[in-house]
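tool=predict chain=A
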Amino acid sequence: MWKLVIRRLLDAVPSVIGVVIVTFLLTRALPGDPAAYFAGPAASQQAVEEIRAKLGLNRSLPEQFVLYVRDLARGDLGVSLSTGQPVANEIVARLPASLELTLLGVVLAALIAIPLGVLAASRPNSWIDHACRALTTAGVSLPTFFTGLLLVYVFYYLLGWAPSPLGRLDPFTTPPPGITHFYLIDSLLARDLRTFWAALTQLALPAITLGLFALAPLARMTRASMLGTLSSDFVRTARASGLSRFTVTYTYAFRNALLPVVTTLGMVFSFLLGSNILVEKVFAWPGIGSFAIEALVASDYAPVQGFVLTMALLYLALNLLIDIFYNLIDPRIGFAT
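tool=predict ok
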């Protein structure tokens, strides 16, 4: 197992280097001039040039890249021109909000999609199968921002069941002590059920929005994988041996169908984490995605580079976790990797 982890970490080094180079070049290719943007429309050309020199934008691209890599080696991601704060501090402060939202959305999707996919595959062409296909089609077709706005309109504006979509907590609730910076976990560790409930109610609608979007590929992959496994020879042999339907479905078929489901689960999580920007905007969620978009609009290089690098590292870490789960589900895979 440790050999696999070390090999995967070594394989990830060229990917990280490639991400650093590509991100640096793409941010410099973006339209707009950060110096002119932050100097303001009334600034003189001399003032713009002074800001450009202060930011190091008057240097050649190779010089800028060398300075960027040198700062990265020291753990310095630069300073955000929009907020005036170090990018690393902004990412550390905002990443838990995005992770908590994405994790809860994926968990909700998995709790519904996986059992639904198993039931649909074990009862093909039944009403459960048709409902599964209809739900997956709707989940893929509806954009996340539309689903979020619809949920806000119904549950906040019309029914008044949900709190106002204004961040992780309402203005009258104090955040829990920052242990993990996940409000649900920190409030439970502090035994503060009032804050836990406040954080959970704020999380409900954005997490459901992401969950409905993530539900579709998970349910579809679970159904397809289970259909393939249930038609295999070893499952027919298990049925002929007189084993119960539950044992055949969950002990034999589901475990063998689990590998592509785990792969899809990892892909969905990484996709949602990097693309839940619209959901964060709809619900005024102080996550890393909305921070990156604001920096991109302002041509603020450092936050965009920090965001892309953080997403790449999280994606590589997630791939490593998936490989570990593969070996736990089927230890024979370890001999082939």
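The chain is about 75% helix and 0% strand. The mean pLDDT is 82.
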